[in-house]
Every structure is written in C-alpha cells, then in structure tokens.
Specification:
- By secondary structure, this protein is mainly alpha-helical.
- About 65% of the residues lie in helices and about 5% in strands.
- It has 13 helices and 4 strands.
- It has helices at about 1-15, 25-65, 70-95, 100-120, 125-135, 150-175, 185-195, 205-215, 230-240, 245-255, 265-270, 280-285, 295-300; strands at about 200-205, 260-265, 310-315, 315-320.
- Strands 1-2-4-3 form a 4-stranded mixed beta sheet, with helices on both faces.
C-alpha cells in the first residue's frame, strides 16, 4: 500500500509540474516514509481494536460457559508453541541466507532497469524501486561495519546531494518558457471548430486525431492509445489513405468506420526518414498487388479522388469529405 501510494503521488506531481519523474526520487522517498509510518499506525490501531474485540468475545463466552476457560488455555498453549516454531524457522532461514532480501531487490531493480532502458515510459517501475533501495543505506546488516552515527551522516549527505541536483532540475524546467506555434494546424482546427457538426467523425494520423479531439472535441476513430489492439487495427485501416490502394477501396474502408472527414498530411505522404521508411514503401511490403500505382494521398491532392470531396486544404493538410 505504501509503495503504491508513494508512486501514485510522485507520478501526479510529475504530471502537474511537467517534470521528469526521476527528478522526484527524493519526494517519492519522503512520501514512502510518511505513508509507511501512517500505515503502521493504522495497522497498530486496527490490531488493538481486534484484540479488544476478541477479549470481549472471550469474556462473554466464559460467562456463558465456564468450560471455555480450559479451552482458552489449550488454545494459548498451542499458539505459543506454533509461534516458537515459526520464530525458530525464521532464525534458521536468516542465519543461512542473511542477504536474501537484498539480493531479491537487487535482481528486481536490475530487471526494472532493463525494462526502463528498452521502453522509456516503463521507467515508472524503475524509479520507485530506486527509492526503496535507498532504505538499505540505513541497514545495520548491510553496513554493519559502520557506526550508527556514520550511517546516519551518510544518509543525510546523500539526501542533501539528491535534493540539490533535484532542485536545479526543477529550476531548469520552470525556467523554460516556450510557445507552441503551428499555423497550419491551428487553421485546420479552427475550420473544424467553425465549419463542421459537433457530431462529425474524423480520422487521420494519430497525432492530428488527438489534436482534433483535444481542441475541437469532435469524435475520432483512432488516437495514440496504441497499446489497444482494436485501436491498432483501426489505425492500420485509416492509414490506407497513404497506401496505393484505389480510391474506391479507401472509401469503402473509411465508410465502414463511419468516418465523415479524413485528414491527410503532405509530410506523412512524402516524408522519408531513410530508405524503405516512407509510408508508400511500407505499404508496398504489405500491399504488393498495388506496387507501382500512385499513392492515394497524391491523387487526392491532384483532385482525382472520387467519390471523396475536398472540404478544406492548406499547405500541409487536406480534409476530404466522406459521402454517405
């Protein structure tokens, strides 16, 4: 519970302040310590209430049946015997594997580090585990060769150094004063806002579709939540507008998705980061029967896109109306 709450609070703070989650390692540690303390207090209170409840129930039972006293003594003796056995087993395990917990957390941290390197967004698992590992700095078992005062001094020094760099990172992030400026997209969004029905359904590339949903609140058929298999399939179908398929096939696909307007981008139609990575070349690997034909997006720019109708265009975007 403490780990989950501290991670959630750290993520919320990073989202609110628009700062990288790693800058909140110290805050996450403090949250974890505070929440753990309150959780321990809460558990103690609940356990005390439970004991009181059990005692009251036993007293009522004893008053109703005197034979319960002997039964109670037997239960207590059995409980003490079991507790002793558990304690002996625990001491035996600790004596044979004194660093089991540390090794487990090290392996877990390594696994999370690999995941964070491979998928940047999954560093949210790696960061809080680093915070948990800082607890070993105050461990007598790990740093038993140091005096207690020395361990405390090291912990305070490390936290102070972390806070200095973290505060510098926060200052740097807060000092950034930028302005988003995309005149062509603003023109597109204003046209959608002023010239289309609030119920008109739009399709396009994932970034543009997300901007349409955010700025105009128009329904969209695909957006950047790409982890969902249904969205991946819909996005794949929408991206037929950058393939070499005939206009009739593209129209049939968009009509089946109940799209009213589809947004085409010249940059997506022609951009080529490296050989074999343009949209046309990617579609050629999947749609071999149409290799050599003109891309639909180029035909649409040239006005050869029946049964579609041109609704809006500027130097970057072209909006086609999908007739019903």
């Amino acid at each position: 519970l403490s780990v989950c709450l501290s991670v959630c609070l750290s993520v919320c703070l990073s989202a609110i302040a628009r700062v990288d989650l790693l800058d909140y390692s110290l805050i996450a540690v403090l949250f974890y310590a505070a929440i753990s303390y309150f959780c321990v207090l809460l558990l103690q209170l609940l356990y005390a209430e439970f004991e009181r409840y059990v005692v009251e129930k036993l007293q009522v039972s004893e008053a109703a049946n005197p034979n319960q006293q002997s039964l109670k003594r037997k239960v207590e003796e059995t409980t003490e015997q079991q507790a002793g056995e558990v304690k002996d087993a625990k001491e035996e395990v600790e004596s044979t594997k004194p660093m089991a917990a540390l090794l487990y957390h090290l392996f877990q941290l390594t696994a999370f580090a690999v995941i964070a390197i491979l998928i940047m967004r999954l560093k949210l698992f790696f960061t809080p585990h680093i915070c948990l590992m800082t607890a070993f700095l105050a461990s007598k078992e790990v740093f038993g060769f140091l005096k207690s005062s020395h361990r405390q001094a090291i912990v305070v020094l490390i936290l102070a150094l972390m806070s200095i760099q973290g505060f510098r990172n926060l200052q740097h992030q807060w000092s950034i004063q930028g302005e988003f400026n995309n005149a062509n997209q603003e023109e597109l969004l204003l046209w959608i806002q002023n010239h289309t029905s609030p119920n008109a359904v739009f399709a396009g590339s994932m970034p543009v579709a997300a901007a349409v949903k955010l700025s105009t609140e128009r329904p969209i058929v695909n957006h950047p939540h790409y982890e969902d298999i249904g969205l991946r399939e819909r996005t794949h179908r929408v991206y037929q507008v950058y393939s070499r398929k005939p206009p009739e096939v593209v129209y049939s696909t968009l009509k089946s998705l109940q799209v009213d307007y589809v947004i085409l981008e010249d940059t997506w139609c022609h951009q080529r980061s490296q050989e074999g990575c343009s949209m046309g070349e990617i579609w050629d690997m999947e749609d071999e029967e149409n290799i050599g034909k003109e891309q639909f997006c180029n035909l649409a720019r040239e006005g050869v896109s029946e049964p579609f109708g041109k609704a809006f265009d500027n130097s970057v975007y072209l909006v086609l109306r999908v007739p019903k």
